[in-house]
Amino acid sequence: MDIFSAGYETLSSSMAFTVLYMILYPAIQTKLHQELDEHLGSRRPTLDDKHHLHYVQAIIHEVFRINTIAPITVPHCCMENTTFYDYFIPKFNLCRRSCTGDFVAQNVMFLYVTTFFQKYSVHRDPNNPDLSTKAMAGFTTSPQPFKAIIRERY
Q1: What is d(CA 8, CA 122) in angstroms, rounded to the nearest whole number?
Q2: Long-range CB contacts (< 8 A, 24+ apart) of 50-55?
Q3: Cα–Cα distance for residue pair 17/9, rounded to 1 Å
Q4: Taking a C-beta distance cutoff of 8 angstroms, is the pair 33, 121 a contact?
Q5: Which of 20, 22, 52, 47 is nearest to 106 (CA)?
Q6: What is the predicted pLDDT for the residue at 37?
Q7: How many angstroms separate the Cα of 148 from the Cα of each of 59, 141, 151?
Q8: Domain boundaries, the chain
Q9: How many CB atoms lie within 10 A of CB 31?
Q10: Are 47 and 107 in contact (CB under 8 A)?
């Protein structure tokens, strides 16, 4: 349950940041739509499409790079020498760790972005012209509240 509840909040924030950046950089959104139209047409995206949608992948990686969604994590270390399958992990080995939900998050984010932007385009709300990319602080970060105009593409 921890993975799913943490994943929901981080994916929600990541998707909000993606929408924000597509509003701020409409030329990138146009290229995103072109790639989706070229490779998917009107069929639903699947995870098999990841290998063909390089621009989508680049956008997702850039959103993850620019905005650290979970900037504060619990420190990890191994309390005793451990063997896990064929891997030996020495006591107090403070090396780079990765989120156990990262693989799921990458795939779900890919499906969210491709499905949403295949059907919709996002635009700046003229009543909300000042958009900020500065994240709101917290255990997880999210964009400042903003309004967007969402239009069906078809």
Answers
A1: 22
A2: 50/107, 50/110, 53/110, 53/114, 55/31
A3: 12
A4: yes
A5: 47
A6: 98
A7: 19, 19, 10
A8: 3-71+98-152
A9: 15
A10: yes
- Residue 3 is predicted with a pLDDT of 55
What whole-number distance in Å separates Cα of residue 119 and Cα of residue 134?
28
| Contact by Cβ (8 Å): 138, 128 | no
User: 60: closest CA among 30, 27, 97, 22?
Assistant: 22
Alpha carbon 31 to its chain centroid, in Å, reads 18
Burial class of residue 131 (count of CB atoms within 10 Å of its CB; 0-12, 13-18, 19+): middle
Q: What is the pLDDT of residues 90-99, one digit of tens each?
A: 777 555 555 6
Q: Which of 40, 49, 61, 149 is nearest to 105 (CA)?
A: 61
CA nearest neighbour of 102 among 60, 53, 44, 144: 60
Cα 132 to Cα 10, 65, 74, 92, 143, distances in angstroms: 19, 17, 28, 41, 8
Say which residues have a Cβ less than 8 Å from residue 50's Cβ, sequence separation at least 6: 57, 107, 110
Alpha-carbon distance of 116 to 113, in angstroms, equals 5
Give the count of beta carbons closer than 10 Å to the beta carbon of residue 17.
20
